[in-house]
Amino acid sequence: MESKLRVALIGCGNIGADICIAIQKGTIPAEIVSLHDIDESKATLLKKTFKLDAEICNLEEAISNSDFVIECASASAVEGVIKNCIKYRKDCLIMSLSGILENYDLLQEARSNHIRIKIPSGAICGLDGVRSAMEAGLHTVILTTRKPPQALAGAPYVLENNIDLSNITEPTLLFEGNAIEAAKAFPANVNVAVALSYYGIGPKETKVRIVADPRTSQNTHEIYAEGAFGSLHTVTVNLPSPRNIKSSYLASLSAIAELRQMAEDYINYCMYCPIKRSGN
Ligand SMILES: NC(=O)c1ccc[n+]([C@@H]2O[C@H](COP(=O)([O-])OP(=O)(O)OC[C@H]3O[C@@H](n4cnc5c(N)ncnc54)[C@H](O)[C@@H]3O)[C@@H](O)[C@H]2O)c1
Question: Is 247 close to ligand 1, i.e. is its CB under 6 Å away?
Fold first, then answer.
């Protein structure tokens, strides 16, 4: 029988569905074996839609029954996911990066237990260069996010400061602060800021700027970084996910790319390795 990476999906919403679509294409040696969602009807719907041979179970069972865990639920799920991954010795991919911001200590605990917590690049390019540059040190990392004004509607910062987005007629810098402040002010933007902080100089030192730009219809993320290596500037112009207008397509694709890598590594190295990690 063909070997496959056995995956637990924690969160059965849009990204979970994108992952199922990718696996169904048959080029990733992985299968979903367990599903968990705080709203069980979401897990049931996903199972039915993709005709998955997967068990719907609680968080602990879902994780213990798998080889690899994908968290694509919400920040509130992250602590429990990482703790159970440590307990059952499973590597995992975390999509809800604001949960990472709140659980930096758990990341260290996972690392010292030799559990890999994968952080996807999400909706931004250039993190490979930022990570490499960190080997010699960076002194400046700035993320500039540009969105159409209405895409920022409802953000706590906009509401608290009574900003009238409909009055913005030219590109306007709405917010400047570090990644921790940005996460509170614009939580919908948190994933990109945390990914950049994680691969770079950390959330306290990473500067975030939010620009409301009525001349654009897309979400653009720019990185500017300076350090011993020189400087870099990347620009990522995102289209929305085909099935979820609120999410960048590249974010789902980054989860799929991470899964492909994990599954191929598992098949190529772990399956036949004499010191293969023991299961549950
Ligand atoms: N890293 C990135 O670049 C990136 C990009 C987009 C989205 N995300 C994050 O990925 C996550 C999933 O995104 P989505 O678009 O699929 O969301 P979604 O709302 O479509 O789906 C989330 C699913 O998780 C379930 N859920 C929520 N909290 C849960 C919990 N504590 N335990 C179990 N299930 C829970 C919900 O019921 C829902 O079915 C979100 O946290 C989002 O912020 C990350």
Answer: yes
Left, alpha or beta for 11 (phi > 0: left; psi -120 to 50: alpha)?
A: left
Same domain, 86 and 170: no
Mutate to test the pocket of ligand 1, among 9, 15, 42, 145 (most ligand atoms within 8 A of CB): 15
Task: Name the catalytic one among 36, 139, 221, 233.
Answer: 221
The CATH number of the domain where 37 resides is what? 3.40.50.720
Distances (CA, A) of 221 to 72, 181, 208: 22, 17, 10
**Residue 187 is which amino acid?**
P
pLDDT by residue (tens digit) across 59-97?
999 999 999 999 999 999 999 999 999 999 999 999 999
Same domain assignment for residues 38 and 137: no
Domain that includes residue 138, residue range? 127-238
Q: Which of 95, 189, 198, 243 to mutate to test the pocket of ligand 1 (most atoms within 8 A of CB)?
A: 95
Residue 136 Cα to ligand 1 midpoint, Å, equals: 35
Q: CA 253 to CA 265: how far, in whole Å?
A: 18
Taking only the tens place, the pLDDT of each residue in 154-189 is: 999 999 999 999 999 999 999 999 999 999 999 988
Structural domain tally of the chain? 2
Please identify which residue in the block is written with the tokens 């654009």.
Answer: 216
Ligand 1 near 95 CB (within 6 A): yes
Here the CATH number for the domain that contains residue 137 is: 3.30.360.10
Q: How many helices (H) and strands (E) does the chain have?
A: 11, 13
Query: 108 and 51, same structural domain?
Result: yes
Can you give the pTM of this predicted structure? Answer: 0.93
Catalytic, 221? Answer: yes
Q: Is the CB of 14 under 6 A from ligand 1?
A: yes
